[in-house]
Amino acid sequence: MTRDDRRAPVDLKTDRPHAARIYDALLGGKTNYAPDRAAAGKVAANIPAAQAAVRINRSFMHRATRYLAAEEGVRQFLDIGTGIPTSPNLHEVAQAAAPDSRVVYVDNDPIVLAHSRALHSSDPAGSTAYIEADAGDPEGVLATPHLRETLDFERPIAVSMCLLLHWLPATQDPYAVVRRLLAELVPGSRLVITHLASDIDPTGVSGLESALASSGTAVKARNKDEVARFFDGLVLAEPGLVVPQRWRPEQVAQDIGDPDAGIADDAVPLWAGVAAKTA
User: Fold this and answer.
1) Residue 118: predicted pLDDT
2) Is position 89 within any domain?
3) What is the pTM of this model?
4) What is the mean pLDDT of residues 11-34?
5) How far is it, in rounded angstroms, from Cα 150 to Cα 56?
6) What total number of domains does the chain contain?
């Protein structure tokens, strides 16, 4: 450890829920605290398939990453809103398909930072890095030295923003965040998104929004057309914008053991898509 790596004690803010730790609780992880578990309980109370949904979301992320690395030749990934490390992480999936893949993770939860060493276990042919930054501040993300030390912005980069954009506060325009990041990328780059859907199980999702707001944790669901706006000017890969268990479903069994995910389309209130920047 270098002198610069030694930091003063960090306030982990364990007295309030955080998105990364809520998802960890829903995944059955141990890196969470009472407020996170209480918030996860509210999620599950309003959306009965919540635990299945977060697993299906990770399965989608794995399939999208494998598709991009193995089939589309993408070798650089920027994962924003990383969350608590849970193996296999994105770099493990990418480097299993293409060992020379380079990956940068971004999150603003100090607990993710504390576990970030798990995100540095790169294949020697590739590289991984972790930067602590706010997803709602694309200028801050883009200005971080480790980002451009690890990724070559003259080559295509896949930006992954899974289960992230619905957490951005009302003061931050998520469409502007995505546009700013994409503006830095060359043609051939990709955008990968999953987003809470307001038009799938609308009663449960509305109840979730209200329940989380009452605990000081705001979330903003969007309908299919609103999520599609994030992909304006891009070309969506088949099968387009769908619930995550229906994106390349022939590969679902490889990840979670059930060809149909055992979940109806209207049970998982998420939209998922992968799109390419062509100009």
Assistant:
1) 63
2) yes
3) 0.88
4) 82
5) 29
6) 1
